[in-house]
Inverse folding.
């Protein structure tokens, strides 16, 4: 079965096929044609996924769930689920680019993974983000006024 293959050896399924499986299952669940439990169980394989395309597919679909569950009791469980999925790939790509350089897909993977990790409350991600902004403000005080414009409520 495909879900078993994804769970045990996801790289034996082509990367685009993995992305399509995620996209199809999550869209079918969104449309009420598949139980969300099935789609979310299938997505659990993401704990062992490091390629950009499946992550992009999954996170695009998870954005809908995140906004739907926001301010609802299930949102906390959703965030915990997401953190379980994101932790390994976050640890793999890291918060910052390697000094040795990286390929474009790895940079894109980092961008979406770091964004979602912070969004879901990943402590290390939030701490590094705060440290990054502090260092930026310290190095260039002109950023303070720029940041204040965007951080000040309307």
């Amino acid at each position: 079965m495909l879900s078993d293959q994804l769970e045990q050896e996801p790289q034996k399924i082509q990367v685009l096929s993995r992305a399509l499986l995620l996209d199809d299952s999550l869209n079918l669940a969104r449309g009420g044609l598949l139980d969300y439990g099935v789609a979310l169980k299938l997505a659990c394989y993401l704990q062992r996924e490091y390629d950009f395309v499946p992550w992009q597919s999954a996170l695009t679909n998870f954005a809908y769930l995140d906004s739907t569950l926001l301010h609802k009791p299930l949102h906390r469980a959703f965030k915990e689920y997401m953190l379980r999925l994101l932790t390994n790939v976050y640890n793999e790509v890291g918060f910052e680019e390697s000094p040795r350089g990286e390929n474009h897909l790895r940079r894109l993977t980092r961008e979406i993974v770091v964004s979602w990790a912070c969004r879901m409350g990943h402590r290390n991600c939030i701490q590094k983000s705060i440290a990054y902004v502090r260092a930026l403000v310290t190095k260039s005080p002109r950023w303070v006024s720029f940041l204040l414009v965007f951080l000040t409520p309307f």
In short: The chain has one domain: 2-121. Helices lie at 2-8, 15-30, 36-43, 52-69, 74-93, 104-119, 123-139, 142-151. The chain is about 75% helix and 0% strand. The mean pLDDT is 90.
